[in-house]
Design brief:
Length: about 120
């Protein structure tokens, strides 16, 4: 209930009407930006499959460069994992309604960092 008040949501119980204050939550209809990855070797687009380096931060290469063995000095194919963006879930534009937000805040207040209990 305290977390709900801090977020500007009325303290009604689940299943009852919840009023949102003027300072409360507002729905955002902004489109989620789709992230594109470019090969760090040749600069080409890495869609749909990219090879992400597990040793060097933010280092991705495209399939042709991976197959050609175009790795940075000291690295080999074992230092890369394939990521297929066509099978990776993309962020949705779905926003939480006030009821869902209130339930989440109440669960967090009750169970703290125990995400099994929150779920």
């Amino acid at each position: 209930a305290e977390a709900a008040k801090a977020a500007g949501i009325g303290g009604d119980l689940p299943g009852t009407s919840n009023k949102v204050s003027q300072q409360g939550l507002t729905e955002q209809n902004e489109e989620m930006e789709v992230v594109k990855f470019s090969c760090n070797v040749c600069g080409e687009d890495c869609d749909p499959v990219r090879y992400h380096c597990t040793k060097v931060p933010d280092w991705d290469i495209c399939t042709p460069c991976y197959l050609a063995g175009s790795f940075p000095s000291g690295l080999s194919s074992v230092h890369f994992i394939a990521i297929d963006s066509s099978s990776t879930p993309q962020p949705s534009n779905d926003t939480w309604n006030n009821q869902e937000t209130l339930l989440m805040l109440e669960a967090l207040e009750m169970y703290n960092d125990n995400w099994q209990q929150v779920a």
